[in-house]
Amino acid sequence: MEPLPGDKSSYICHKGHEFIHTLYHFPTNCEACTKPLWNMFKPPPALECRRCHIKCHKDHMDKKEEVIAPCRGEKGQNKKKNPENHIVRFFNN
Predict the structure, then answer these.
(1) Which terminus of the chain has fewer CB atoms gathered within 10 Å of its CB, N or C?
(2) Whole-angstrom Cα distance, residue 22 to residue 38?
(3) What is the domain count for the chain?
């Protein structure tokens, strides 16, 4: 179940990530330890960042391991560019 927009009480916040609990029934690996995150019948508890979609075992967070890189933000979306880096030229006809 996807949390309501703006409802951060169901997220686990860590290093800029907003992790949600999930289970994988298809081939997926942990991005912290590269071990499988999936099992057809009894998958291990997993977390996925709703912003950058990094996936990891819930155990890494429970044990407070420092194996998770900081969040890179939303994948696939352009970050806002600094308007000072753009030159706009107007030409009169």
Answers:
(1) C
(2) 10
(3) 1
